[in-house]
Amino acid sequence: MIDLNSILTPSFIEGCELDKTYTGPQLSYEDGKYGITLDFVREMIQWFKDGKALPKRYVWEIALGAHSAFSSEESLVEVPINEDVTVDVIGDVHGQFFDMLHLFSLTGEPNEKHYLLMNGDLVDRGSWSIEVILTAFAFKWLYPKYMFINRGNHEAKEMNRTYGFEGEAKHKHGEQSYKLFAHIFTALPLATLVSATKPPTAKERAGAILSADGFKRYFVVHGGLFSRDEVTLDEIRQLPRVGRQPGTEGLMCELLWTDPQEAPGRGPSKRGVGISFGPDVTKRWCTLNKVSGIIRSHEVRQDGYQIEHDGLCTTVFSAPNYVDQAGNKGAYIRIDSAGSREYFQFDAKPHPPMKPMAYVQGGLGSLMMM
């Protein structure tokens, strides 16, 4: 297991002074510490749109600022939706930076009345994964209580090696920067419980599974459910994650890798990792844990989202025209303080002339669509 101190050695830090020739967006600097502002984030995004890169020191500071926020969160993050607050749940964006910017223009920036929750797979496939992850991490550093990020199966070493993020990170910012990101990915929470604070409308209450207080709440996770029925929210909350990879079995693997199926029961995964779970599995788990529904990502949906398992399982995918060839819409889900959901779709936007997975070594990753 690798810890942060083994990466951030004194020689590592000493070799990363800010480039004196850099003239781009400036982090604040006071009493020997860097800080972040909304103006910096906005200017950084424009800097990226202009095809420019941040200096390595700023990359590290953003990553470490986000890491500090993730380190204070449990493996299951609890997000109450208070009066007049909404939460937008965003699915996979997979390094499609220009589509993510269009998405953010629709959702709006995170703030005290409007939270964003990115549900994993921010990187790989698309060739602007560094720009995507730095933008997301910058918002997390700036607004740790308004910006939330779950881990996906692509925030993992083996996937990054195969699908482009490792090559991209090393190309743009060096090997040590990649090692830093790889460790911080292990600090990402594994799921988020989004909880309403007002009772649902009479129409939405009918047949709904509610919390003990009579409110709706949603379990937001990248993949899905488990190979056994009795997994509880407390068990997920206590999962050790930092420094660990998902592996090919166990709860972390299943949280990040499983998929719903139409047939009852459980079946083998088409991916070769994890399982598939049926509508009866979903209903039993939601009933046990008093959860109104599961929101997950992990799979392309042509309409950007799909409601399955008698309304208890919703898939949302936010990378439109995935890898420039799938032709799908992107989508996001907005949840209000009563637990009501709205679904929004959007189309892909043009991007500079660079193909998906431009940094994959050997190009074999393009043959697989996990």
Can you put this structure into words, describing what you see?
Pfam families: Metallophos, PPP5. The protein has 370 residues and is an alpha/beta fold. It is built from 13 helices and 16 strands. The chain has helices spanning 4-7, 10-14, 38-49, 56-71, 97-107, 129-142, 157-163, 165-173, 175-187, 202-205, 233-237, 251-257, 279-289, and strands spanning 28-30, 33-35, 76-81, 86-90, 114-119, 147-150, 191-196, 217-221, 259-260, 266-268, 275-277, 293-296, 305-308, 313-316, 330-335, 341-346. Strand 13 and strand 14 form a beta hairpin. Helix 3 runs antiparallel to helix 6 and helix 4 (56-71) packs parallel to helix 9 (175-187). The longest helix has 16 residues, at 56-71. It is globular and about 60 Å long.
Strand percent estimate: 15-25%
Query: What radius of gyration results from the CA coordinates?
Result: 20 Å
Give helix and strand order, one letter per element, not per position.
HHEEHHEEHEHEHHHEHEHHEEEHEEEEE
Distance between the termini: 26 Å
Mean pLDDT: 94
Largest sheet: 6 strands, mixed
* Count of helical regions: 13
Structural class: alpha/beta
Spans of at least 5 consecutive residues with low confidence: 363-370
> Outline, from the CA principal axes?
globular
Classify the helix fraction into a percent range: 25-40%
With strands numbered from the N-terminus, the spatial order across the biggest sheet is 3-7-8-12-14-13
Please give the number of β-strands: 16
